[in-house]
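> example.struct
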């Protein structure tokens, strides 16, 4: 890595809801023309990049609010650790138990030239839709570098302890 380059870091929140002994996770389909006709490996945990002046936890909350359009739900934040994605970005994720309606999402937008080379700037949603998925479905939809968070969440939930029993703090 060049001396002036900095490692790209991203942080996000993976919401989950329990269904008896099972659980679902809330993930988002990435917006924009590149992802428009893709399903497999085209979904993401609501997350975003942050710089050295911001803590990962603060970035995760800010990015959730920007991408989902609502405040982070109350609840304990379960740390799911980090994962390095294929492009070199390190992603840090926490899980929060909540049950939000994906239809109420008001995603943030980004602007890009489209079609490329046209000189026309168009606006696209960062996430064009959200959905609750069983972990098996989410594993097919999520980009490869984020699938590990599903296993880590499953491990945390099958230990048989709730977040409060482990001493995890509520935000």
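> example.seq
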């Amino acid at each position: 890595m060049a001396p002036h380059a900095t490692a790209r870091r991203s942080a996000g929140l993976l919401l989950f809801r329990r269904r008896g002994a099972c659980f679902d996770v809330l993930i988002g389909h990435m917006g924009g023309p590149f992802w428009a006709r893709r399903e497999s490996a085209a979904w993401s945990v609501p997350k975003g990049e942050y710089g050295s002046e911001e803590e990962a936890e603060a970035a995760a909350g800010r990015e959730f609010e920007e991408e989902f359009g609502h405040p982070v739900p109350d609840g304990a934040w379960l740390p799911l650790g980090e994962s390095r994605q294929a492009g070199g970005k390190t992603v840090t994720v926490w899980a929060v138990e909540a049950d939000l309606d994906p239809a109420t999402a008001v995603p943030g937008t980004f602007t890009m030239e489209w079609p490329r080379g046209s000189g026309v700037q168009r606006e696209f949603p960062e996430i064009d839709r959200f959905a609750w998925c069983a972990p098996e479905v989410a594993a097919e939809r999520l980009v490869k570098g984020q699938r590990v968070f599903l296993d880590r969440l499953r491990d945390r939930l099958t230990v048989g302890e709730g977040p409060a029993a482990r001493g995890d703090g509520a935000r």
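> remarks
The two ends are 36 Å apart (CA to CA).
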